[in-house]
Design brief:
single chain, mainly alpha
Length: 269
């Protein structure tokens, strides 16, 4: 018992100490940061860093770009993934198993492997420097994991519910919208949080496809605080905290659904 508590304490410190350093650094001047990186702010808390971030119109635009890309990516991925998962569950034969394996194989392809062909494809379609291009890439790359999670949950739903709905005259679309989706809300919420974190923090694809400042997302914009010879750590960490705030807020309000959704499809019976 003592070893377990000690291990949990060490684990908590490994998370809290870096987080505390980030918060304290965001409240320092750049001179204080380099003079005493791990110390407390010497001249009081410098909230001017946060004010400077919000006063920059370009940063507000980056925040809006991230919001648009993330919301559309998550919504459309959930929409397509839920329909695919419902179809695989309803088939319940070799074709359903084949489709499930096919989408599962998509999880095995690292993003770095497809960078060059994906960039060539997006360039040919004139979708570079475009929020639409980022949204389409996000959907394509995260659809397999969303299908995997939602299929695992929908397979635990009683088939008698679908059969009863069919006997009552309901078609597949009505069963999907009136039966499958309401019962899958915990799993949908968990998948939504998972996708939100992935898309909101994504740096690879914006770095690969976006060069125009008008279409930069927040993670890509944070690189502007890092120069060739020096880095403005107070402003960088301030941007990191602001960028992390939506994820923290979303998890606080949806954590009940997140835990329920991640455990709902774990066992069957």
């Amino acid at each position: 018992m003592f070893f377990r508590r000690f291990s949990l304490l060490i684990y908590a410190l490994l998370i809290l100490v870096p987080l505390l350093i980030v918060v304290l650094t965001s409240l320092k001047t750049i001179q204080e940061t380099f003079r005493n990186p791990l110390g407390l702010p010497e001249s009081g808390l410098q909230f001017e860093n946060y004010a400077a971030i919000f006063q920059e119109q370009t940063m507000a635009g980056y925040f809006m770009n991230s919001t648009i890309v993330t919301l559309f990516s998550v919504s459309l991925t959930l929409f397509f993934a839920s329909m695919i998962a419902y179809g695989i569950t309803r088939l319940n034969n070799w074709l359903g198993n084949f489709l499930f394996i096919l989408f599962t194989l998509g999880m095995m392809v690292p993003a770095q492997v497809s960078m060059i062909p994906l960039y060539s494809l997006m360039l040919d379609l004139s979708l570079t420097n475009s929020l639409l291009g980022l949204i389409l890439v996000n959907i394509a790359t995260t659809l397999p994991i969303a299908v995997f999670i939602l299929t695992g949950f929908m397979k635990t739903l009683p088939r008698e519910l679908f059969e009863a709905s069919t006997i009552d005259g309901a078609g597949n679309w009505k069963i999907y919208t009136k039966v499958a989706i309401p019962l899958s809300l915990p799993s949908l919420s968990a998948t939504a949080i998972f996708l939100f974190v992935m898309h909101w923090n994504d740096l690879l694809y914006p770095l690969l496809f976006i060069t125009d400042n008008a279409y930069k997302t927040l993670p890509l914009a944070l690189l502007e605080f890092q120069g060739e010879y020096s880095t403005n750590y107070p402003m960088l960490f301030t941007g990191v905290i602001i960028a992390s705030a939506p994820m923290v807020i979303a998890y606080v309000f949806l954590q009940r659904y997140f835990v329920a959704g991640m455990t709902a499809g774990a066992v069957k019976g």
